[in-house]
Amino acid sequence: MTDGAHDPDDLAALREASDVLGIDGLLSAGERDTRDRVRAFVDAEIRPHVAEWFDRGVFPAELAPALGRLGVLGMTLDGYGCRHASAVQYGLAALELEAGDSGIRTFVSVQGSLAMGSIHRWGSDAQKEEWLPRMAAGEVIGSFALTEPGAGSDPGSMTTYARRDGSDWIIEGAKRWIGLASIAQVAVVWAQTDEGVRGFLVPTDAPGLDIAVLEPKGSMRASVQTQLTFDRVRVPASTLLPGARGLRGPFSALNEARYGIVWGALGAARDSYEAALRHALRREQFGRKIAGFQLTQRKLVDMVVELQKSGLLALQIGRAKDAGTLTPAMVSLGKLNNVREAIAIAREARTILGGEGVLLENPPIRHAANLESVRTYEGTDEVHTLILGQHLTGLSAFR
């Protein structure tokens, strides 16, 4: 361009300039191919519609089969139609999906990491054969019911109870903030029993199960969250996940979901930054592009510094997961940092867009709203701070 400014329409060049540390060069060809395929899907299938979905407060359930064909449902699982991709490949997919919208990445996480992951790890061979191939294809949607009205950060205090009745189980209680349940065919339900916490595969049309959609919401509007009420819901013994006993069952799935958030939040932050950068390169005030003003450049630089640091953090955690050396403290550090920084980036990006930044055609305000939910679910800032505090001191501050 004649004034020396970068071309706001050359997104590839802007991304290359923004990758100051050359993180892209740390990825393998296969990892970049995965990222690029998911990025192309988001550009074609999500970006043109997401502002409308968010505004109307609807989740596009029709995307499920397309996400299945893309290979991102249960992406890291082995067999049953799953891709058995690496942790880094899944992380890059989560990043690109959340660059579209947190609600879309959350669907993939609930379906693949929470519901499918629980069945794959703790289910019987018959349960795996029954559910996983159809869930991987997006033909069946699953849900994961752990959080309760009175038990969020402390799942050990859950009051939903399952008792034996002959060869069946009867479940009573309530779950809240449960993703996808109103559009799902099966829910992985965690309940107290005389044997400790157990997991059940409950059909969502089971008699006595009431599912209410939680709305209206100011965040995660292109997603669906629900409350489940169990009024003597009877399920056969074949629905019990035989391998899961105690809180280790749901916690193993939560760690998988938290890992996806480490990368996903980075996508929302990057998309916000890029919207701000491109606007600043187009917008003129006082006779010059606002990208040339010192205060604007400082905002952009601060965003890139945190994006690059968060990207290295996500990649290190992904490499550790692939190497089998990942620890819960690593995941907590990644989730705590990357979501916190992503919110700050989205909010700062909105300021560069000025009044235009409150329009849903510009993504920062939508990402900022969504990230408030991401910051809360799969462990709040406070929970992850205390997990790290216990790791550092050896002392638990929870009880």
UniProtKB/TrEMBL annotation:
<feature type="domain" description="Acyl-CoA oxidase/dehydrogenase middle">
    <location>
        <begin position="143"/>
        <end position="233"/>
    </location>
</feature>
<dbReference type="InterPro" id="IPR052033">
    <property type="entry name" value="Glutaryl-CoA_DH_mitochondrial"/>
</dbReference>
<keyword id="KW-0560">Oxidoreductase</keyword>
<dbReference type="GO" id="GO:0033539">
    <property type="term" value="P:fatty acid beta-oxidation using acyl-CoA dehydrogenase"/>
</dbReference>
<protein>
    <recommendedName>
        <fullName>glutaryl-CoA dehydrogenase (ETF)</fullName>
        <ecNumber>1.3.8.6</ecNumber>
    </recommendedName>
</protein>
<feature type="domain" description="Acyl-CoA dehydrogenase/oxidase C-terminal">
    <location>
        <begin position="245"/>
        <end position="392"/>
    </location>
</feature>
<comment type="pathway">
    <text>Amino-acid metabolism; tryptophan metabolism.</text>
</comment>
<dbReference type="GO" id="GO:0050660">
    <property type="term" value="F:flavin adenine dinucleotide binding"/>
</dbReference>
<comment type="similarity">
    <text>Belongs to the acyl-CoA dehydrogenase family.</text>
</comment>
<dbReference type="InterPro" id="IPR006089">
    <property type="entry name" value="Acyl-CoA_DH_CS"/>
</dbReference>
<dbReference type="Pfam" id="PF00441">
    <property type="entry name" value="Acyl-CoA_dh_1"/>
</dbReference>
<keyword id="KW-0809">Transit peptide</keyword>
<dbReference type="Pfam" id="PF02771">
    <property type="entry name" value="Acyl-CoA_dh_N"/>
</dbReference>
<comment type="pathway">
    <text>Amino-acid metabolism; lysine degradation.</text>
</comment>
<dbReference type="InterPro" id="IPR036250">
    <property type="entry name" value="AcylCo_DH-like_C"/>
</dbReference>
<dbReference type="InterPro" id="IPR006091">
    <property type="entry name" value="Acyl-CoA_Oxase/DH_mid-dom"/>
</dbReference>
<keyword id="KW-0274">FAD</keyword>
<dbReference type="GO" id="GO:0046949">
    <property type="term" value="P:fatty-acyl-CoA biosynthetic process"/>
</dbReference>
<dbReference type="InterPro" id="IPR013786">
    <property type="entry name" value="AcylCoA_DH/ox_N"/>
</dbReference>
<dbReference type="Pfam" id="PF02770">
    <property type="entry name" value="Acyl-CoA_dh_M"/>
</dbReference>
<feature type="domain" description="Acyl-CoA dehydrogenase/oxidase N-terminal">
    <location>
        <begin position="31"/>
        <end position="139"/>
    </location>
</feature>
<dbReference type="GO" id="GO:0000062">
    <property type="term" value="F:fatty-acyl-CoA binding"/>
</dbReference>
<dbReference type="InterPro" id="IPR009075">
    <property type="entry name" value="AcylCo_DH/oxidase_C"/>
</dbReference>
<dbReference type="GO" id="GO:0004361">
    <property type="term" value="F:glutaryl-CoA dehydrogenase activity"/>
</dbReference>
<dbReference type="InterPro" id="IPR046373">
    <property type="entry name" value="Acyl-CoA_Oxase/DH_mid-dom_sf"/>
</dbReference>
<dbReference type="InterPro" id="IPR009100">
    <property type="entry name" value="AcylCoA_DH/oxidase_NM_dom_sf"/>
</dbReference>
<dbReference type="InterPro" id="IPR037069">
    <property type="entry name" value="AcylCoA_DH/ox_N_sf"/>
</dbReference>
<keyword id="KW-0285">Flavoprotein</keyword>
